[in-house]
């Protein structure tokens, strides 16, 4: 992605030792640095100011090893997610993490932000898929834990400190990722509901009925469903309008025929029992693409207003229906707000909102933020499920973290980066 | 478990605030403390010396909440694992972590040691099942992150620092655990092999063929298989002796009939292709118990020698056959060693060894340790897959962690516990 920025310099290390040398000098001179990968982040975590040096990992793009027996791939930080997908395809393996920006997002950035996406429910977020990590600390110390092992209780599991820390505690240079056997069957279906309670029951019903093969369970609220399949989009609605909720679910299995029959049976039983209102099963590869394009490509939702605010919140799955009703009501009552589109990875408790406005007035922006974030405080939700805090959400960090937690985070930051050179000004006010 | 110990005092807090008050006083007076749960640890992590105060969490045993819709359970640290299993049974849910000591092990200890067990392959270790955590720091500060959410990228994920830190960075007082839908079908089979390479191919074959339902894949080497089913045990061998490796595998699915047929088909195809030598499928609930008792109850292996050394190592699955051959050869050539039993959670790269000796001579013990741990260094293995370091393995920590890693761990310890009161003398030399 071409994002213009001003910086003191851009350095392009070719090795971990290069990164170490650069950081040592910057540390000694208290020179702030910002790491750049694919620049697909959504929280402003790679924003640069003119006095900062950018370290771009784009030249470190070696796939160092693919181990079919231990089912691992070892890559440098600059390798793009889609390159990982492609590299393991011919081995009958998959790297299951998947999201829209896969053609640009780099592994270093994906680790640093603990990215999620469409199949977290089954395979977990990036954190769950990193077996080993190499990180360079602020002072240039190289921490090499590039192991191919799944279980390691030999003292503190340091990698988790760096995963999701948005470049503020160390620079990720390499990673060992876990691979999975490629599935042989795929089934997708759209299902309609008018009550959120029935969505939750259906999630439990399908999860039980598809034991282990359910890999995606997305929910799209009515207005977002219409917005994604209207004349502003090239995608048609798989189910007619008029329902309140639309679930898109996916199973990845091993027996094309048996898995399809199982899905059909579960859906027809649910219809018969009156637990779902309507359903359509993908009949072909092009149906799969159709269904998933509707959910994955949310660009059409950005064409309804002059200005938008995007949200990535997390809350307990059981509470989503009620809380989102409240949020939607509050938000749409704000003068200047034109619409509120809601959709998300409901099985993981992760909801996205696209809120359209007629102005980018600061007070309006703040009112919208408050309306979305305020209800999360009391119920133990999060202002960021998968995008991170960056600069965009740092004034709302205290809505999902206690003062004691933030204090402890700052203590860690100070301990690992005493001169505050690693991505300063991010995450914390 | 009744383990006699001498301590300055034993305190039995009834609340998180009690724990906080106790720690604040101990911190101010540099009084070392050791946390006690079910005392089922295998690395000496709860050993006490006479100048230490024991904090036992056994009075904090409330199950605070079961949320069927969000599929979580919130418990105090003193709740026993089996109590969690039983509490969710009637809701059609399971807490999937399972291991032999489930009747005594307490959640606080399980979190602190990041315990694993028999179904890690499918459901992950304790780390993967903890959604929220409440921890008291050395100075009494309460860090409350008791959230029911699956995804939370609002800055550093602090819970991972405490999970697996063996009580050296904080005291776990409560946890929110993730629940799963209870499976409706269970299939177990024993399968025989003479080559390790074929075991790995079979793992990949079954993992692909059972897409998502494979929940356990245990390997037992010939001598251990014989040791577990000989006259010293009440368990008979499900497959005849004479093969080199015995796999015990398990699938947990949703359709009793279809799942059974799928397993049968996969096994009969593998037999026909000559990829496996023999197989037997559990035909009844008592067969399941029989098969799994053979693997779970390893007590019979402790009856063959006067002295034993137990190991819990981790290495890449692809390398296990070759490396364990080397280790077995080296170990059994040591004078004083009588046998070397090997078995483990092979799909997770975790192998256990029971090495019998005719003496508890210190030099012999050290020679055995070296023979097992030395080969792990070069291949990026671990001296502890799931039991932790405690006191028993601290002189071998440097075999699985670099000096830079250990230095960073010590920095964390010093930052979080400056007066070194939390379980001092554990993990680090």
Topology summary:
Two copies of one chain form a homodimer.
Chain A: E1 9-11, H1 16-28, E2 33-36, E3 53-56, E4 63-67, E5 72-76, H2 81-89, E6 93-94, H3 107-113, H4 120-123, H5 126-129, E7 130-136, E8 142-145, H6 159-162, E9 171-178, E10 180-181, E11 185-193, H7 196-209, E12 214-221, H8 222-228, E13 245-253, H9 256-272, E14 278-281, H10 285-296, E15 307-314, H11 320-332, E16 337-345, E17 350-357, H12 362-379, H13 397-400, H14 403-416
Parallel strand pairs in A: 1-3, 2-3
Antiparallel strand pairs in A: 4-5, 5-9, 6-10, 7-8, 7-9, 11-13, 11-14, 12-13, 12-16, 15-17, 16-17
Helix pairs in contact in A: 11-12
Helix content of chain A: 25-40%
Seen as an oligomer or otherwise, the chain set is homodimer
Topology, number of strands of chain A: 17
Task: List the uncertain runs of chain A.
Answer: none
Counting helices, strands and paired strands, the structural category of chain A is: alpha+beta
**What gyration radius of chain A follows from the Cα positions, in whole Å?**
22 Å
Apparent shape of chain A: globular
Task: Determine the mean pLDDT of chain A.
Answer: 96
Q: What gap, in angstroms, lies between the N and C termini of chain A?
A: 27 Å
Specify the biggest β-sheet of chain A: 7 strands, antiparallel
What's the helix count of chain A? 14
Count interface residues per chain for the largest interface: A-B, 100 and 100 residues
Strand-residue fraction of chain A? 15-25%
Strand order, main sheet of chain A: write it out: 14-11-13-12-16-17-15
């Amino acid at each position: 992605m071409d994002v213009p920025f001003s910086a003191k310099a851009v350095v392009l290390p070719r090795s971990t030792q290069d990164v170490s040398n650069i950081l040592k000098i910057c540390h000694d001179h208290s020179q702030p640095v910002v790491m750049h990968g694919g620049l697909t982040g959504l929280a402003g975590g790679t924003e640069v100011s003119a006095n900062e040096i950018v370290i771009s990992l784009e030249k470190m793009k070696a796939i160092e090893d693919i181990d079919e027996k231990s089912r691992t791939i070892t890559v440098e930080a600059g390798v793009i997610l889609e390159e990982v997908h492609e590299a393991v395809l011919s081995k009958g393996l998959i790297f299951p993490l998947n999201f829209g920006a896969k053609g640009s997002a780099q592994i270093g950035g994906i680790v640093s932000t603990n990215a999620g996406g469409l199949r977290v429910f089954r395979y977990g977020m990036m954190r769950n898929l990193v077996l080993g990590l190499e990180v360079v600390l602020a002072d240039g110390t190289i921490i090499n834990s590039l192991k191919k092992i799944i279980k390691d209780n030999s003292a503190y599991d340091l990698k988790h400190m760096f995963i999701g820390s948005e470049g503020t505690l160390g620079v990720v240079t390499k990673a060992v990722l876990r691979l999975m056997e490629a599935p042989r069957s795929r089934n997708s279906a759209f299902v309609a509901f008018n009550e959120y309670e029935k969505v939750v029951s259906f999630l439990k019903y399908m999860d039980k009925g598809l034991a282990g093969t359910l890999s995606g369970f997305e929910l799209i609220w009515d207005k977002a469903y219409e917005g994604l399949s209207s004349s502003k989009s090239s995608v048609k609605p798989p189910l007619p309008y008029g329902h309140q909720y639309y679930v898109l679910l996916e199973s990845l299995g091993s027996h094309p025929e048996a898995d399809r029959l199982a899905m059909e049976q579960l859906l027809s039983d649910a219809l018969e029992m009156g637990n779902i209102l309507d359903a359509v099963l993908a009949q072909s590869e092009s149906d799969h693409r159709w269904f998933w394009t509707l959910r994955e490509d949310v660009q059409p939702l950005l064409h309804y207003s002059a200005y938008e605010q995007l949200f990535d919140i997390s809350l307990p799955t059981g509470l989503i229906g009620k809380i989102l009703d409240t949020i939607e009501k509050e938000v749409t009552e704000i003068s200047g707000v034109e619409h509120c589109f809601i959709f998300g990875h409901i099985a993981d408790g992760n909801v996205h909102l696209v809120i359209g406005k007629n102005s980018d007035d600061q007070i309006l922006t703040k009112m919208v933020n408050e309306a979305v974030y305020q209800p999360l405080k009391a119920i133990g939700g999060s202002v960021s499920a998968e995008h991170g805090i960056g600069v965009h959400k740092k004034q709302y960090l205290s809505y999902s973290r206690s003062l004691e937690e933030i204090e402890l985070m700052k203590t860690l930051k100070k301990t690992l980066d005493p001169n505050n050179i690693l991505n300063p000004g991010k995450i914390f006010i």
